[in-house]
Amino acid sequence: MTIIAPRSRLLTLVPVLPFTGLTIAYVATNSATPHPDASGAAVLAYTTAHQDLIHLGAFLLLLSAAPLVLATGLLHRALRAPAIAVMGGALAASGLTLSALFSWTGARLPSSAAPESARAFADLAFLTGGPAYAAGFGLLALGLSIPVLMDTELPRWVGIFGLVIAGAAALSTLALVASGFTYLLPVVRFGGLIWLICTAVVVSRRASFPTESALPAHV
């Protein structure tokens, strides 16, 4: 195994930074979105009055999926993580994409639409961008944390932090059956974001990648 130049290793940070910025921008844009327990009438009133804002938020959320996939691939390669990390990153990115599409579509409902339709689109946006995203991100955190804990060159606290995020993500999926677990979803989104930044930083400083000569001939 050959350690490549620091400039190349910094590539692990490149997709994490836009993912962070887009996530923060999305949350700020949608800070006034009605809660999951809001009535369909309240959701419809909000969406019809803030269509452009919701469309902007959906656009930001959709954009954030791409750098998450790139970050997953680079960190997976850097750490030689198990395939569960790639699967988790893909699931999380899919959740973001679907949530953006459901939000965008729900905002296009006319004011004369049935409140139940507005509530349905809001529920789909919440489920895909909330529990589904958390489930995928939890697998990503678990898959990347295992090799971090096994690598003596990397700080163990990053791996432990990732396992905590993975555990919180698993528990947050129980929001489907008990509303009390809904409060874990922001923990996964923001705590996971901090963990992802920390992981990218330590990997960019210490991780090693295989050189082209070290890869199989068919790659």
UniProtKB/TrEMBL annotation:
Domain of life per record: Bacteria
UniProt entry keywords in alphabetical sequence = Membrane, Transmembrane, Transmembrane helix
Which protein are we looking at?
DUF4386 domain-containing protein
Q: Which residues cross the membrane?
A: 53-75, 82-104, 124-150, 157-177, 183-203
